[in-house]
Design goal:
globular; 2 domains; mainly alpha; about 65% helix; about 290 residues
Length: about 290
């Protein structure tokens, strides 16, 4: 448990970081936060916008932990109930943070993350918050796109409309949303679509010339992007998702250009989804598949 002094140091670090790094710091903490972890001392008072944003972000990950990583139909009613209770607390803290500072990219990013499991109106609210945010992290665009996927009550049309919109904004790391959208489209065919031929479409997905053209375009834009504010973690998100799906698409040389830029940084939001191993192990396996030995 982090007590007052520990939260003070963590908040100072998050406060001094650019939005993409701040989001990454809270995400890393979130993946290590258990359901019994105390948040006492994190929020100094009703006007503590940063404390509320961090608490909201951590509560999102606690909600995920409450649900677990089982398939939806294998998750117990008790787990779902606790999951949604924690998400409500998260959304409340993040909304309060944004009332105090509507330009907070950190709070807007996690509000979009919380909206993944909520109703369409909640997704609309999260998107409006992103529009007001200053330098929102690229992870926020990805979160919003995932919230629009069919598996979370959206549609393929809404998913791709969101992905194209935010990728076209040409913000640092925004090409991550295209790579993740292709992963979600493949996953839809592979696991959720019950239409005849869906599994065959999944098997052929990464061989599609249209898919490859889209990924190469996104890859080129990400590799050529200028990062005036550093935006190291935005770039890492784009390189992580592009490297991952390009390996899946049997494009190891192109994938290596992105995975090499990551070094050893394994973003848990990239390297836990659909993986059987811990993030660093998953990244290492993908690096090997791309021909990178070190």
């Amino acid at each position: 448990m982090l007590l007052g002094s520990g939260w003070k140091a963590f908040k100072a670090r998050v406060s001094g970081a650019p939005p993409d790094e701040a989001y990454a710091l809270v995400t890393a903490r979130g993946f290590r936060t258990g359901l019994s972890s105390g948040l006492d001392g994190l929020v100094a008072g009703p006007d503590d916008a940063l404390g509320l944003a961090i608490a909201g972000g951590l509560l999102v990950f606690m909600a995920q932990r409450a649900r677990g990583w089982r398939d939806a139909e294998k998750t117990s009613r008790r787990r779902w109930q606790r999951h949604f209770e924690l998400l409500e607390h998260a959304a409340d803290a993040l909304t309060r943070s944004l009332r105090l500072d509507e330009t907070s990219g950190l709070a807007a990013g996690f509000l979009a993350r919380a909206a993944i499991h909520q109703d369409g109106e909640d997704v609309d609210v999260a998107e409006a918050a992103l529009e007001r945010a200053r330098r929102p992290p690229a992870a926020a665009f990805v979160n919003l796109m995932v919230a629009r996927t069919p598996k979370w009550g959206g549609s393929e049309h809404a998913m791709w409309k969101t992905a194209r919109r935010w990728a076209a904004a040409a913000l640092p790391g925004s090409q991550a949303v295209i790579a993740r959208a292709h992963y979600e489209q493949w996953l839809q065919f592979a696991a959720f679509d019950e239409a005849p031929g869906a599994r065959q479409r999944a098997a052929a997905y990464w061989k599609s010339p249209e898919v490859m053209d889209d990924l190469i375009t996104a890859s080129d834009l990400a590799l050529k992007a200028t990062l005036p504010y550093g935006d190291r973690f935005n770039a890492h998100l784009a390189d992580g998702w592009l490297g991952r799906v390009l390996v899946d698409a049997r494009q190891p040389t192109r994938a290596a250009r992105h995975l090499r830029r990551l070094g050893g940084y394994a973003d848990p939001e990239v390297w836990t989804i659909g993986m059987r191993f811990k993030p660093k192990t998953s990244l290492r396996l993908y690096r090997r598949s791309a021909g990178l030995l070190f």
